[in-house]
Specification:
By secondary structure, the chain is of the alpha+beta class. Among the domains are: about 90 residues, no CATH class; about 190 residues, no CATH class. Helix content is about 30%, strand content about 10%. It has a 3-stranded antiparallel sheet with strand order 6-5-9. It has a 3-stranded antiparallel sheet with strand order 7-10-8. A two-stranded antiparallel ribbon has the order 1-2. Helix 1 packs antiparallel against helix 9. The radius of gyration is 27 Å and the shape is elongated. The two termini are about 20 Å apart.
Length: about 425
């Protein structure tokens, strides 16, 4: 071999090594974005509070909305290209492989004939509609959206801050903002952690008695124009809030982000609070007796501090009202899949979860899933292309790589091997 050819071969070998290093880095980044194992469907676990997704391709006719778990969103529907992230919802069983998916087989449970859970509840989110029946698009969203804690009437829907205030979406941003950049009349984000929408408040009017008392901010009324708001005190983590183009994170690395960790299983209604009354007497009610006659027939939303549960009355009468709203009595936990067993080895990071949360904070999760699926498909195709060269111990030339990717881009289903050229 001539010296010039030897130099060229070394250069090409270095280029090949650079390519291998780049693929390794891509794999590390993929595992950082999706650190959890996705080899087990959650349906056998029964109803859970868990991260849910909707596959628009598998429910295209809109006749039967369906929700799928984190694992199925990747293993069964990741290549469909029409996933919608619903964030966490309570008491839900995965619909993948059931009659709601119109014959789509669950690749993890190897079935398409399971019966869907009768206890599942669906709202407009499963059709990629949020707030005022608007399609969610992370790239074009503005402001912040908040998830309703109660969810009795709205199904744990998400609402824009402007819609909570009753401001038109096309109004001038500067005219509606205060000196700090927030919306006039809207509570400061650091002053509350939970939000209950006007739909659920109207169905539980007794909740208004708590407005303005310890654990609760003053009520916010949906109307046009500037709103009165007086309580900006307190500090809480915005765990049921999401900025446009971002995913909120939880301070606790043991929880799946972005919605807060809420527990639905294993819950028991606590005994009524002990009081100083004698045996056999009914415990006294501590429900605030604040009346709000001016709020009658108005759309009123409530904002809650992180410790609001410490101020909820638990007398017999109030417990009767709360029996169907366990989330108001005790925090629930969100089910999380186990970490990928190969993740730490691949990244070399001490805490893969921390790295994953950091990566997720800057990328839309649906795009992350689609990107990882596309990367995996490309990786397998490139391995098939390189295999003959490796077996014959031949150097991959620049022309070989260029020709391969041109064929790949053009949709060619055949790839020329070294034997074809010899």
């Amino acid at each position: 071999m001539e010296p010039g050819n030897t130099s060229e071969a070394v250069g090409l070998s270095q280029t090949a090594q650079d390519y291998i290093d780049a693929q390794r880095q891509l794999e590390i980044e993929a595992r950082e974005i999706l650190p959890y194992s996705f080899d087990t469907c959650t349906k056998p676990l029964g109803p859970l509070r868990q991260l849910l997704f909707a596959c628009m391709k598998c429910t295209s006719d809109g006749s039967s909305p369906a929700g799928i778990c984190y694992s199925c969103s990747i293993a069964c529907h990741g290549s469909h290209g029409e996933l919608v992230e619903l964030f966490s919802k309570r008491n839900f069983e995965c619909d993948c492989g059931t009659s709601r998916m119109h014959g789509s087989c669950c690749n993890l449970r190897k079935t398409q004939e399971d019966h869907p859970a009768k206890g599942n509840s669906y709202n407009q989110n499963f059709q990629n509609l949020f707030c005022k029946s608007e399609r969610y698009d992370a790239e074009h969203e503005h402001g912040t959206m908040y998830q309703c804690l109660l969810g009795e009437r709205c199904g744990e829907d998400w609402f824009h801050d402007r819609c909570i205030l009753g401001l038109p979406s096309d109004s001038s941003a500067n005219a509606d903002e205060d000196d700090s950049g927030g919306l006039k009349g809207f509570p400061d984000e650091d002053s509350f952690e939970y939000f209950i929408c006007w739909k659920c408040v109207s169905a539980n009017s007794w909740l208004l008695k708590y407005a303005g008392t310890p654990g609760f901010l003053e009520p916010v009324v949906c109307r046009e124009g500037i709103m009165e708001y007086s309580d900006q005190s307190g500090a809480a983590v915005a765990s049921r809030k999401r900025k446009a183009n971002s995913i909120s994170t939880d301070d606790d690395p043991g929880h799946v982000n972005p919605p807060p960790a809420l527990r639905t299983s294993g819950f028991s209604v606590p005994a009524p609070e002990s009081t100083d009354v004698g045996a056999g007497d009914t415990p006294s009610c501590k429900l605030p007796q604040r009346e709000h006659p001016d709020l009658t027939n108005k759309k009123v939303s409530l904002f809650l501090h992180s410790d609001f549960r410490d101020h909820i009355c638990r007398c017999n009468s109030c417990l009767e009202k709360l029996k169907n709203h366990k989330c108001l009595l005790e925090e629930e936990t969100t089910h999380e899949p186990p970490l990928d067993s190969d993740a730490e080895e691949s990244t070399g990071h001490e805490s893969l979860l921390d790295a994953g949360e950091k990566a997720l904070s800057s990328i839309d999760r649906i795009r992350a899933i689609e990107g990882v699926m596309a990367y995996n498909m490309l990786k397998e195709k490139v391995k098939e292309f390189l295999q003959p060269f490796a077996e014959e111990k031949r150097i991959v030339c620049q022309e070989d790589v260029k020709k391969y990717f041109e064929e790949l881009k053009g949709g060619s289903k055949t790839t020329q091997s070294p034997k074809d050229e010899s």
